[in-house]
Design a protein that fits this description.
This is Solute carrier family 25 member 17. The chain is mainly α and about 325 residues long. Helices cover about 75% and strands about 0% of the residues.
């Protein structure tokens, strides 16, 4: 087998497909369980007039004002986006790993590099889905900020059509610049997760327990989320499409100026803590979701390899 054929087989491999499917199913299941927490986080990020309160208090307000099912508004487009996003990320990450490591031991720096590369591919491919799901998730919400314009999308495809007609194709990639910066979030998360997993396995010399995997996933996501949260807030505002972007010729310069403006404006209005408005809800949601996702991912992947009689590759450990 030639080197080119060998690399092709590594990239388009059964193992990478199993990891991608397991990651997608695990993330969809976990997000469904903790979806209301994400609703609370998003409201606090984009609605500047809404007071920062505890997550249960925010959810209670939403239910009282908008109905019992309001915390699950926009569930379908979010789940579709998440499924595609995690499939792409896990597939790219494990394909790159198989191709680059080739049986060698992984290191935190290699995990970070592979996680970043997988994240860039993921952002460029799936950002339009996330723009649409942000709009649909917030459609019909009762905002404290009167400047927010209401939208009227009939579904995922209608949202795509309306955004392209009203704002141009480029609007589907709103928030791409902060999203590219935010590839550090999953990259740092995977680096910490894989590093802790390797360390713990070297200590206990056995397969990790479900609780151990859950805790490692929670720690990894908590660190990654806290470090990158201000950029996540900017990303949500840009995806929502209510911020007037600059009209310079360079899209990159426009994006950079928008990110800097939103960060500085947030600090001026609310102080440094304003950059972390909604962090409690985000941490609660994202840490629990990531922990459950990693647990389900590990179980689904190992069970699939076992059922199909395929030995799990050493690089996945």
């Amino acid at each position: 087998m030639s080197t080119r054929e060998f690399r092709f087989a590594e990239v388009f491999s059964y193992e990478s497909l199993v990891h991608a499917m397991a990651g997608a199913v695990g993330s969809v299941t976990a997000m469904t369980v903790f979806f209301p927490l994400d609703t609370a986080r998003l409201r606090l990020q984009v609605d500047e007039k809404r007071k920062a309160r505890s997550t249960p208090a925010i959810l209670s307000e939403i239910v009282k004002e908008e109905g019992l099912l309001a915390p699950y508004r926009g569930w379908l487009p979010v789940i579709c986006s998440l499924c595609c996003s995690n499939f792409v990320y896990f597939y790219c990450f494990h394909s790159l790993r198989a191709s680059w490591l080739r049986g060698h031991k992984s290191t935190p720096s290699r995990d970070l590099l592979m996680g970043t590369a997988a994240g860039v591919v993921n952002v460029l491919v799936t950002t339009p889905l996330w723009v649409v799901n942000t709009r649909l998730k917030l459609q019909g919400a009762k905002f404290r900020n009167a400047d927010i314009r209401p939208t009227n999308y009939l579904g995922i495809m209608d949202a795509f059509v309306q955004i392209i007609e009203d704002e141009g194709v480029g609007a589907l990639w709103n928030g791409t610049f902060p999203s590219l910066l935010l590839v550090l979030n999953p990259a740092v998360q995977f680096m910490i997760y894989e590093g802790l997993k390797r360390q713990l396995r070297s200590l206990v010399h056995r397969e990790l327990l479900s609780l151990e995997v859950f805790l490692i996933g929670a720690i990894a996501k908590a660190v990654a989320t806290t470090v990158t949260y201000p950029l996540q807030t900017v990303q949500s505002i840009l995806r929502f499409g209510q911020h007037k972007q600059h009209t310079d010729r360079s899209p990159l310069l426009n994006s950079l100026r928008s990110v800097m403006y939103l960060l500085i404006n947030r600090v001026r209005k609310y102080g440094m803590l304003g950059l972390f408005k909604g962090l409690e809800a985000k941490l609660l949601q994202t840490v629990l979701t990531a922990a459950l996702m990693f647990l389900l991912y590990e179980k689904i992947a190992s069970s699939t390899f076992r059922v199909m009689g395929v030995k799990r590759p050493a690089s996945s450990h």
